[in-house]
């Protein structure tokens, strides 16, 4: 048996180490390790609860608006604010939703797609596209004179040798690399959309406890509309089309394989509230295909965090309203700063695939039913397995749903501006109570995000974040049950230990953000068969 260590796994957010036991070319055991620790919760103790929105946004440079939103909901609950004004609901959806557009396009084109492309074929490009010619020239130079360790490496120099699943056709590779470049421009547009209503990017400042800071003037709403039109066209005609075309074409064999298939346990807290009380992405918890709970309040009491194999002091886990963050760096058996969240004791996958599975199971109740869900169901009916490729398909299809949601919320906002003063903030519950408890549960791009707060003497006494990547990247729990990444890696084909290309495909399909899951570097480093991938 060979032990392979990939440390760090690149093209993700944050620092993740993957250790694999490989027997006869197949992964038989896996350990996912977050090598940094989050100190944000400790840092919040004693602060004004209203500051939590801005402090927690600094957990991450990608999904900050999700943290700001979840934090505001938690603080609002603790303050006694349950119903924020309708305009604030719409503006939060629009600010955070625009960030998702940026995030999902970035993930597919810039972090993941190159795992599936035999980029070396670009060295044979003979067309007239200026950028592709530049990329070809740089690639040829790098292939002839490989960069030494520490030297600059261009984004198109393959880290791994292509394999049987890779796309070798020059036209397809050139098209996807062209879209990679176009997606950079689209990311800028999506960020501008969010900044228009959120004040700035990254780390928006529009979402505050009780509502939002501004009802945008017509000129801003019109600008948002123009940008949304452009991004939506790209999402529908390029992003979704690329994912479906390659997923059912050159990658069909991979899509229908078991590569990256997990437990079949899925969780969603419900994402983007609609005016009728439903969510664009419905709530639900599914265990082995059966819906177990269908509402946030029904889900919340069943969440726990296990710290058996985390570098945390024993006894610091439990329900997030009770956990504390005390590190134990010498703990026997610990191998990660990521805790192990469980729902009813089960490891749960969160993120686009989970949302799509739950949406597909709740279609009859979903007032905002979307043809994208039907497209996903037809992929499953064609034999696509809930593994690495399906996660990309679910992410692309939910982006299309989101574009339509953004249009709906913008329309609702425009109707509200009928020449009268529109409420955007609950000022009644602005001051922190003497004591209070609250939680904020939402969907972030990578999955279910929860913040829990306890207020004592008007200040934060305890704060806890249970983040999407904490669910997915969790280590083994006290019963020896592996986390979702670890489970998805079991059975992964690694015919060549020097070239574990499928490992990157599986892990990246979840879109890890270890920056969210944890923070603070440990200097410990152990190497077996060390690969930077
Ligand atoms: Ni840092 Fe995040 C998202 C949150 S972590 S990116 O999405 O919350 O998984």
Q: Mind telling me the CATH class? A: Mainly Alpha
Shape-level CATH architecture = Orthogonal Bundle
What is the helical fraction, as a range of percent?
Answer: 25-40%
Strand order of the largest sheet: 3-2-1-15
How many angstroms separate the termini? 21 Å
- In the CATH hierarchy, what is the superfamily? Cytochrome-c3 Hydrogenase, chain B
Uncertain regions spanning at least 5 consecutive residues: 519-533
Describe the largest sheet.
4 strands, mixed
Total DSSP helices = 16
Let me know the average pLDDT.
Answer: 92
CATH fold label? Cytochrome-c3 Hydrogenase, chain B
Task: Summarize this structure briefly.
The protein is of the alpha+beta class.
Tags for this model:
binds NI-FE active center; disordered C terminus; single chain; 16 helices; globular; Cytochrome-c3 Hydrogenase, chain B; alpha+beta
Structure description:
With 533 residues, this protein is α+β, with helices and mostly antiparallel strands. The protein has a single domain, classed as Cytochrome-c3 Hydrogenase, chain B, CATH 1.10.645. It has 16 helices and 15 strands. The chain has a four-stranded mixed beta sheet with strand order 3-2-1-15. A hairpin with a 2-residue loop joins strand 2 and strand 3. 52% of the residues are buried. The C terminus is likely disordered. It binds NI-FE active center (NFE). The site of NI-FE active center has 16 residues, from helix 3, helix 13 and helix 16.
Topology (SSEs and partners):
Layout: E1 2-6, E2 16-23, E3 26-34, H1 40-44, H2 52-57, H3 64-79, H4 86-112, H5 130-144, H6 170-198, E4 207-208, E5 211-212, H7 218-248, H8 252-255, E6 266-273, E7 279-287, E8 290-293, H9 296-299, E9 303-306, E10 340-343, E11 349-350, H10 352-361, H11 371-381, H12 388-416, E12 435-444, E13 447-456, E14 459-466, H13 468-472, H14 484-489, H15 501-509, H16 514-517, E15 530-531
Parallel strand pairs: 1-15, 6-11
Antiparallel strand pairs: 1-2, 2-3, 4-5, 6-7, 7-8, 9-10, 12-13, 13-14
Helix pairs in contact: 4-6, 4-12, 6-7, 7-12, 10-12, 11-12, 12-15
Bound molecules: NI-FE active center.
